[in-house]
Amino acid sequence: MSGGVDSAVAAARAVDAGHEVVGVHLALSRMPGTLRTGSRGCCTIEDSTDAQRAANIIGIPYYVWDFSERFKLDVVDDFIAEYSAGRTPNPCMRCNEKIKFAALLEKAIDLGFDAVCTGHYATIVTDDQGNRELHRASAWAKDQSYVLGVLTAEQLAHSMFPLGETPSKALVRAEAAERGFSVASKPDSHDICFIPDGDTKGWLGERVGIADGAIIDREGNTVGAHEGAHAYTVGQRRGLNLGVPAPDGRPRFVLEVRPKTNEVVVGPKEALAIAEIAGSRYTWAGLPQQHPEESFDCEVQIRAHADPVPAVARIQPTENGDEFVVTPEIALNGVAPGQTAVIYVGTRVLGQFTIDRTVSAVPVGV
């Protein structure tokens, strides 16, 4: 129970369905001031209080479990390491993968519970053979299946999402109000919870360090300078310290971050178009695709709120192991290594991978 409206209603519905329910709030920091507060965070002290009030109204036991060490190692430290390597991580994906459906689920099963129930908007479908599949929620505007794409077949077997068939968030808020939950009108949480003031650049600068470097164009010419490559991400336009204007006078965007040489590569907007993405760190959500080494039709989604794009995918062997390769029908825009690509077949989440490499649709010199 995060302290928000969704998990409160999910817990109440689980009780209504006849389950024996225990409310658990996750303490993710031993220094609460390091987490965002109000509507901009999650898992803070005030959120814990809101969760306890909801649990009291529902009439279920309520506990706070300390996962601060695991959260630091698996989410915060990973976030720093990924940025240091020039990648753009998604900490919410890592939190779902490593904390909510790994550390939490492991402890719950050890204590004799059958499943972890959350307020995510997604659905689970069981086929004729009893295999569980992860699918989009009925309300695509609120669908959260993307951030659950990291779940494995074993984790899906112990997961429940009572809100998945609810047509809108407004109905969930109305239900919360009817049940007397004080969180009925509480705003949704957003942004990175462990960066209190929202200054990601400054936060990373304190932990990664600041080192002057060059901003170069695609041909390798120096066109500016920076004070730390970690402060830049693919697709960024603002905040570039460019001393040499583009020959055509058009704005330039970050195309690549090279931590080994401490360089930031910039170029025209057209060069952000990506014709292929690939990654070796992949998982299947439920049963894997049959004959994945053969090309198959799918849709790929590269951000939580991005539109899915029709694509062709395959598993390709390399010298360092297999990698998931996806070729979209329409070029993807501004894709950065470190992002998560979630693969769909219809409404079903087939699997996901962390993007290791991209191929531009616009060759250098064009």
UniProtKB/TrEMBL annotation:
<dbReference type="GO" id="GO:0008168">
    <property type="term" value="F:methyltransferase activity"/>
</dbReference>
<feature type="domain" description="tRNA-specific 2-thiouridylase MnmA-like central">
    <location>
        <begin position="203"/>
        <end position="267"/>
    </location>
</feature>
<dbReference type="InterPro" id="IPR004506">
    <property type="entry name" value="MnmA-like"/>
</dbReference>
<keyword id="KW-0067">ATP-binding</keyword>
<dbReference type="InterPro" id="IPR046884">
    <property type="entry name" value="MnmA-like_central"/>
</dbReference>
<keyword id="KW-0547">Nucleotide-binding</keyword>
<dbReference type="Pfam" id="PF20259">
    <property type="entry name" value="tRNA_Me_trans_M"/>
</dbReference>
<dbReference type="GO" id="GO:0002143">
    <property type="term" value="P:tRNA wobble position uridine thiolation"/>
</dbReference>
<comment type="similarity">
    <text>Belongs to the MnmA/TRMU family.</text>
</comment>
<dbReference type="GO" id="GO:0103016">
    <property type="term" value="F:tRNA-uridine 2-sulfurtransferase activity"/>
</dbReference>
<keyword id="KW-0820">tRNA-binding</keyword>
<feature type="active site" description="Cysteine persulfide intermediate">
    <location>
        <position position="193"/>
    </location>
</feature>
<dbReference type="InterPro" id="IPR014729">
    <property type="entry name" value="Rossmann-like_a/b/a_fold"/>
</dbReference>
<protein>
    <recommendedName>
        <fullName>tRNA-specific 2-thiouridylase MnmA</fullName>
        <ecNumber>2.8.1.13</ecNumber>
    </recommendedName>
</protein>
<feature type="binding site">
    <location>
        <position position="26"/>
    </location>
    <ligand>
        <name>ATP</name>
    </ligand>
</feature>
<keyword id="KW-1015">Disulfide bond</keyword>
<dbReference type="GO" id="GO:0005737">
    <property type="term" value="C:cytoplasm"/>
</dbReference>
<feature type="binding site">
    <location>
        <position position="119"/>
    </location>
    <ligand>
        <name>ATP</name>
    </ligand>
</feature>
<feature type="region of interest" description="Interaction with tRNA">
    <location>
        <begin position="142"/>
        <end position="144"/>
    </location>
</feature>
<feature type="site" description="Interaction with tRNA">
    <location>
        <position position="339"/>
    </location>
</feature>
<keyword id="KW-0694">RNA-binding</keyword>
<dbReference type="GO" id="GO:0032259">
    <property type="term" value="P:methylation"/>
</dbReference>
<keyword id="KW-0489">Methyltransferase</keyword>
<comment type="function">
    <text>Catalyzes the 2-thiolation of uridine at the wobble position (U34) of tRNA, leading to the formation of s(2)U34.</text>
</comment>
<dbReference type="InterPro" id="IPR046885">
    <property type="entry name" value="MnmA-like_C"/>
</dbReference>
<dbReference type="InterPro" id="IPR023382">
    <property type="entry name" value="MnmA-like_central_sf"/>
</dbReference>
<feature type="active site" description="Nucleophile">
    <location>
        <position position="95"/>
    </location>
</feature>
<keyword id="KW-0819">tRNA processing</keyword>
<keyword id="KW-0808">Transferase</keyword>
<feature type="site" description="Interaction with tRNA">
    <location>
        <position position="120"/>
    </location>
</feature>
<dbReference type="GO" id="GO:0000049">
    <property type="term" value="F:tRNA binding"/>
</dbReference>
<dbReference type="Pfam" id="PF03054">
    <property type="entry name" value="tRNA_Me_trans"/>
</dbReference>
<feature type="domain" description="tRNA-specific 2-thiouridylase MnmA-like C-terminal">
    <location>
        <begin position="279"/>
        <end position="351"/>
    </location>
</feature>
<dbReference type="GO" id="GO:0005524">
    <property type="term" value="F:ATP binding"/>
</dbReference>
<keyword id="KW-0963">Cytoplasm</keyword>
<dbReference type="Pfam" id="PF20258">
    <property type="entry name" value="tRNA_Me_trans_C"/>
</dbReference>
